[in-house]
Amino acid sequence: MRVTQTLYNTICVFERRYKAILCNKKPQMLMVVRRCEGNSIELTKLKEMMQNQYSVHVFTVSLDTFARVSYIDASTNLLYISGTPIAVVYYRCAYTPVDFAGDAERRAYCEIEKSLAIKCPSIDFHLAGLKRVQQELSDAKVLGTYVSEDEAKQLRGIFVDMYNFTQPLPPWVVEEVGTRPTDFVIKPQREGGGNNIWGTGVSKLVTELVGGTEDASKYILMRIIPTTANTYSRVLDNRVCVDVCIHELGIFSAMLYDTHLERFYENTVLGYLLRTKPQDHNEGGVMTGDSVISAV
């Protein structure tokens, strides 16, 4: 409910901001999806809620078909889908290389970014979420440029050490990786899960990257976040499974920011997701069956 309310509020902000060029047309929403979308039930529910609660129509278009149904007004930069102005573009894809199989997908992404539509996420905020940026923010000096000293201290209290391979690793870190590789994980600049390197693969890749390769900038080294394991019952395929498990907590939030006016319209927490997985599972995706959603 709070997600749909936030999306509607965003559309209203767009409508007020560009009222003069909308010419009394009601802007709607575009959801960019994969051609073969594997999570269609959730997306259909979101479309129904937006329509029923706020009379907002949600178009669903894949990047490779975007050019057939869209155009951008050269004088206003408004994005239109089937003749309807679009206020919000919600990306359900465009996070992995497979989403950009050809020139059509890359051109579509560029066209959307150049339009006035509010992107979720925009390219700058998407890049800000990359692992390399997270690693830089783990540095106390870098973090201190964005928050107060007290806030930085609190945040650093829940951080783990992260390192990039474009600079020499501290000798004691290289030694630890060699003797206890399971205490670390190597993460590439990728989203979507399933791309991390674990266990003995960590020490092998560190040896290669420390030796100096063109791939050094593609990865970061991160200490494993310490967790407390307990025995839990999980329901999988209508079966009760009892395993030693750990929890992973994710926080959902929404931020609407005007980069030109440097103004926040919204910056709030919307909810959380607590998932539970066996302690010996590296990956934790719910859709992949590695974990289950937990109740609190």
Automatic annotation (TrEMBL):
Q: Name one GO cellular component term.
A: cytosol
Gene Ontology molecular-function annotations: ATP binding; glutathione binding; glutathione synthase activity
Q: Name one Pfam family in it.
A: GSH_synth_ATP
Please give the start and end residues of each transmembrane region.
Answer: none
Superkingdom as given in the UniProt entry: Eukaryota
**InterPro entries given in the database record:** Glutathione_synthase, Glutathione_synthase_C_euk, GSH-S_sub-bd_sf, PreATP-grasp_dom_sf
Q: What's the name of the protein?
A: Glutathione synthetase, chloroplastic
What is this protein's gene name? GSH2_0
